[in-house]
Design brief:
Elements lengths: L2 E11 L4 E6 L10 E2 L2 E3 L6 H13 L4 E12 L3 E11 L13 E6 L13 H9 L2
Parallel strand pairs: 1-6
Antiparallel strand pairs: 1-4, 2-3, 2-7, 5-6
Length: 132
């Protein structure tokens, strides 16, 4: 039986309707692919607590979780990833520091499909693009 890994992701939108996208480093699994920032849920954490902790650890970023967006389950060769994504808000003066990612970009929703995404994130990108 494959190991199931529970992860959370943040869809961070700015006041211009752009989405914050982060690039995984070359030396990690899915290297040089784009993702929504987040990470693994640790023991006894709620999904929301895990998301806030991961964003602090990876980006030195504090967010307000606005609402649940969607869940995606993706089976890979050795594991199953269950990803829960939330729409998050930041203030105008959003400050962050890339600690785990090699790059980041703000993109309008209609341009999200121009990036090569981690496979688990594709359904989220699709839903964001089609959302009115």
């Amino acid at each position: 039986m494959k190991k199931v890994i529970e992860v959370v992701g943040a869809i961070i939108e700015n006041e211009n309707g752009e989405i914050f996208c982060t690039l995984r480093p070359k030396n990690k699994s899915f290297g040089n692919m784009w993702e929504f920032p987040g990470g693994k849920i640790e023991n006894k954490e709620s999904k929301e607590e895990a998301l806030k902790r991961e964003l602090r650890e990876e980006l030195d970023l504090e967010v307000e979780i606005a609402r649940y967006f969607m869940e995606v389950s993706k089976e890979y060769e050795n594991v199953i990833i269950n990803l829960t994504c939330y729409i998050c808000k930041v203030n105008k003066n959003m400050r962050y520091q890339l600690k785990e990612h090699s790059a980041c970009i703000w993109l309008k929703k209609e341009f999200l499909s121009s990036l090569v995404w981690v496979p688990t994130d594709y359904p989220i990108v699709e839903k964001l693009i089609n959302e009115k």
